[in-house]
Amino acid sequence: MKNYFLHNDWQIIEEGFNPEMHEAAESIFSIGNGKMGQRAMFEENYSGKTLQGSYIAGVYYPDKTRVGWWKNGYPEYFAKVLNSPNWITMDIQIDGESIDLFKNNPSNFKRILNMKSGLLQRSFDYSTSSSKKISVDVERFMSKEDDEIACIRYSITAHDNASVVWNSGIDAFVKNTDANYDEIFWSRVSEKSDNEKAWLKSKTNKLNFEICEGFFVKTFIDGVELSNVKYTSTDWKINSSWEFNLEKGKTYTMEKYVSIVSNMYYDADQLEQACADNLIKAKQYGYDELKNRHVNSWAEVWENADIIIEGDVAAQQGIRFNIFQLNQTYTGRDPRLNIGPKGFTGEKYGGSTYWDTEAYCLPFYLGTSDAKIAKQLLRYRYTQLDKAIENAAKLGFNNGAALYPMVTMNGEECHNEWEITFEEIHRNGAIAFAVFQYELYTGDKSYLKEGGAEVLLGISRFWAQRIHWSAAKKQYVMHGVTGPNEYENNVNNNWYTNYISNWCMKYTTEVINYIAETDKEYYVDFCTKTNFNTSELEKWSDITSNMFFPVDDELGIFLQQEGYLDKEQMMASDLPSSERPINQHWSWDRILRSCFIKQADVLQGLFLFEDHFDENTLRRNFDFYEPRTVHESSLSPCIHVIQATKLGYTDKAYELYLRTSRLDLDDYNKEVHEGLHITSMAGTWMAVVNGFGGLRIKENKLSFSPMLPKQWDGFNFLVRYRDSILNIKIDKENISVSTNAITTVDCEIYGNTISLEPNKVYTQALLK
Amino acid sequence: MKNYFLHNDWQIIEEGFNPEMHEAAESIFSIGNGKMGQRAMFEENYSGKTLQGSYIAGVYYPDKTRVGWWKNGYPEYFAKVLNSPNWITMDIQIDGESIDLFKNNPSNFKRILNMKSGLLQRSFDYSTSSSKKISVDVERFMSKEDDEIACIRYSITAHDNASVVWNSGIDAFVKNTDANYDEIFWSRVSEKSDNEKAWLKSKTNKLNFEICEGFFVKTFIDGVELSNVKYTSTDWKINSSWEFNLEKGKTYTMEKYVSIVSNMYYDADQLEQACADNLIKAKQYGYDELKNRHVNSWAEVWENADIIIEGDVAAQQGIRFNIFQLNQTYTGRDPRLNIGPKGFTGEKYGGSTYWDTEAYCLPFYLGTSDAKIAKQLLRYRYTQLDKAIENAAKLGFNNGAALYPMVTMNGEECHNEWEITFEEIHRNGAIAFAVFQYELYTGDKSYLKEGGAEVLLGISRFWAQRIHWSAAKKQYVMHGVTGPNEYENNVNNNWYTNYISNWCMKYTTEVINYIAETDKEYYVDFCTKTNFNTSELEKWSDITSNMFFPVDDELGIFLQQEGYLDKEQMMASDLPSSERPINQHWSWDRILRSCFIKQADVLQGLFLFEDHFDENTLRRNFDFYEPRTVHESSLSPCIHVIQATKLGYTDKAYELYLRTSRLDLDDYNKEVHEGLHITSMAGTWMAVVNGFGGLRIKENKLSFSPMLPKQWDGFNFLVRYRDSILNIKIDKENISVSTNAITTVDCEIYGNTISLEPNKVYTQALLK
């Protein structure tokens, strides 16, 4: 579907209506505000294919696990993002016939997502079966400022006379497409209406999530407000009905104001009041003011996070789309929330939290938002430490060893493939690394004593038990893991997992020593609470001093796992295009036996621990592994862009950048109809900032080594660092850096430290 | 439930009724005749827990696959044994109240399965809620002689006067408990009745299996036949109704004659006629003659297959139970049928054919039945060769490479766990080995040209493609397999699989050379049909000459797989009993990482290829692996009994024998309510005959090296060999061998060849 959506700096544009593309467009045009989100279904009835999706952050359903063959240790439930009441629905009958763009295709159809303002707009001309013609304009937003309020402004301009019945309401009888046993997840609680509004409550059949959604409408003819709407309620549904006669030439407008609240934020018995309060607030502000507040809120986001790419509109649109979607998904306001792989754009993958959060999203939020937002992501894991300890206990670990889940909503594991659930344990490493990265980026060690050290201890305890002594090797080994490259399962001594596990134990030791030295009181509390004993440090030290790491001395590379070189060695470029992606063409055993790599594995380690290795080591490993990598994870290309840039492989870097930045807009994997790849969007940001921008975090400063892809005229990005924002601008000749700080800020350019003074632009020549 | 069923040489006896045990008893008391089978549900209504199960051989349903996460290559369907119409059902109302042994528990309840005669008998005293007393006697059989006919004789002796309505019929509205999506598998076709009988037809909703079941009853008062029954039919059901008044002291008997036919054996439009013909035949014979024919047929089985154990009633009962159930399950009359893991005793595991058939059942049928029965098992696989080639093609293999399915009904793979479906490929070796074993046992090479060579070629082609050259090792290797020990998944160079794969290529080479030398005409046909080229033999020879086999020279053992010694080494005896079986207590990853072995793996190879290795090699490997084996497969102990016996480890042999012989009768695994472990029953036979009897097949003779467990006074078994039956009797002092052959038969006793003369008993002292 390359080029289906028009290229534009700030907008995603669909011109002309294509029912085949509608579900994909529903994903692409999704809107959200971190607390709720909505696929871009049409307001009107639509009899064609559509994936209904309205989501409320944190409200989920534990769907009974479905597997073919049960394995001991599998979780009983898989937490699913819940499709919740449909609040956009409008049934607009013209001379008794409902508008339905599938039945009667529109002309001059145009759909625009304005990323600058966060507005979804749509316009089209429509003719009923009996040829009554109208023009329609619709605008929709979920307020980023008033995050329990959403609005629609829907206008019909008449080109004929006709009678109209315009029903608009909320429909709570919704199902999840992705329900293991076709269960209905919701129960009715109540539906009510009065003269001014209607509202309903629903409750999940498990876990007692309760929500209240209410709305009112304003109606206008040629801008003059009327008061002629009747509100009603029936089982599962609330409705407003506006009946009138269209007069040719006149414009009829309905503004729909919706409030959505859940018992995540209110007591269940306060929900109706909270909902009503929101509606009162909405009425007071009115549509235009609500919209202003929303647009201003987006302006703030862009002020901190925009990336400008010059000379390449597709790339410009791609990177903004990614930044936009990430900001629609997560705001950091609530430490119970996290970043689902599909955000608010689809049901697939259920759950909300993968290691993507720490490995990809955390750097994005650190670089573009206040540190407290990143800290919320850390707190999320601390809050779930008890569950991680329970999770490990289920697998036979003890003494406070913690295994964070592969997929989770509330800290409980949701996933049920043994090779992932029980074996893709490197996720624990990413969660520890996030603590380190936060500390390095912010310089703030306070989180270590607010839970960070406990998280690190649980993780290191897990590693110490998961690793065992091999009498045969006379070294410590780790068996039965799945590394980041999920095209290998149940391997022994995955270099990446071995490496990060050892790093965890070393870093945890440092942190515990730091605490013991600097805060005796907390240290005593910590030891008591966790039953920590310094003999554990000795054990860890013994492990890290005697760990086995698979290497090949001849090639000078780290081995992805023991025996990797026994595989038949092939290059990804040898694969016929008819067999790619291999995960859609090859059986699983064939994939496992092949040397092909799904996403960075050894290279993921060299990315995270870049400073531990020299550039030649990186080069040898990159030269060996990248050609064997098929990049069939959306998380793969970005890491390689960063490394290719560093190694001066600029063509390779740009080629891989293209794969990541427009993954969804160009639907590379033919699956965008299921929703967007939200977490990998953060990887795209990294590809620009850490890749082409060459950003690295050093002790107490940022460092940049930019390069400019030859396809671009220049690019410009902002990075938030501690109390200031750095503005980095690269054109064909120069790199310019400035800061909004009020004092001098140090940073490194190509390894040289420079002191940026407030309001001065530092410029130097771009290295080529 | 040890000792719940009373010990008896020829009978399984339940005394007293225990509703908690009813489902287990339904499995234990199952009857069948190879063409159909039936769990021992009660005829009367029963409101307690019961697992309804009536099965018709070859009639199955492709149930849509259910998995958590789809892997490329998974089969779309899992063929399920079909629960089919309930033909035993009787609703007997006494003064308007149905007999229900759950509501009003019976007294003097006794249930007997007579294994000698194949009769299921039951008697009890019963009192209605209003204290009307009766005594009941029931007998049931599915005729082994007339294998589309089943009979019930149900007698009520009155101790009070009461009115009775005795409905008896067939109920076709049945479901599978094990249905992935709760689907109904059957559709109604028709129900009909006339003055003498009633019959119905049903059809499966997929694959067009169609069945017709009909019945008539005879009724008697004190042995005097009446003619007062009315037949009716309604949707899904046919019925006969007999209304009368019980008179104290009189006995009322109903004989129910049932015919069950399917379009496996008749055109669909002939089914009604075939069913009617059976009923006419049944009427002509009458109950007693049908029963005689059935009992005589069982007598023939025992004449060929009985094993007598003296001094140990539990062991005697156990071995007869196993022989009995195997003969209920498979008769070899139809090459489309095979031996399901639960036979006709439950739905679990679906499918009908596992590698159990070749590895365990084939030796049993070779040793106890005419060779043509074993040949049917070989022909089953030949018939399915095309599907095995398709199956391999789905996984990326070509040029006629064949991978037989792990679980199948019609040749298509049913299983859907990648680590089994795609990786437990040693099954292919067992299927080739069966061809070899049949040839060795029977001396008959004819099957090689009737399909055997084609099967071998397909299998060897698979191995040649599945094995690859390791440039690192400079040897051929096989990656990504699951060996017989399913507590390891996705390992590299499993010794057993490497060994049997190489053996396959060598044996296939021999067979092809033999054919080329002895039958040029067939050889040309063979080459044309299979596109065979002698360069394939060169490739195989290169592989078998340069194959990697993992060994440990220091311990002098073959390694189960590469890296096995890197595991933490523990003994099964170190496991606390609270953690056993580990498959019910440990998470899957923990099982995989441990050194514990589910069932013989290296030792399976040393069992099949015993002659390739010296006794010290066997001893070193047994001493190493058996203590690490947890025997959590029903197929495990028997192989170890055989090897322990050979090595003189008599206590170990007897301990393991107990685990296999009464597995179901004593419900070791707490799962007998789901059905019996039919295929492993053949392993028990092997434990006695190949283990304690020391039977081995040598070129053109059998060889025996018996030992007597000290718990036994003696044992006696029959082995069919070519045209004769050998009778081997062991007591505390001697071994006696005789034959029913009319000419001299050679055999070996403890390595010495002796010539058995007809009608003479050869006796020598038992070695101790």
Brief summary:
Chain A is an alpha+beta fold and 768 residues long. In chain A, strand 11 (133-142) and strand 12 (149-158) form a beta hairpin.
Question: Could you walk me through the main structural features you see in this protein, from its secondary elements to its overall organization?
Answer:
The structure is a homodimer of 768-residue chains. The first copy, chain A, is of the alpha+beta class. In chain A, a hairpin with a 5-residue loop joins strand 15 (198-204) and strand 16. The radius of gyration of chain A is 27 Å and the shape is globular. The first copy, chain A, starts with 10 loop residues before the first strand and ends with a strand. Chains A and B meet through strand 22, helix 13 and helix 14 of A and strand 22, helix 13 and helix 14 of B.
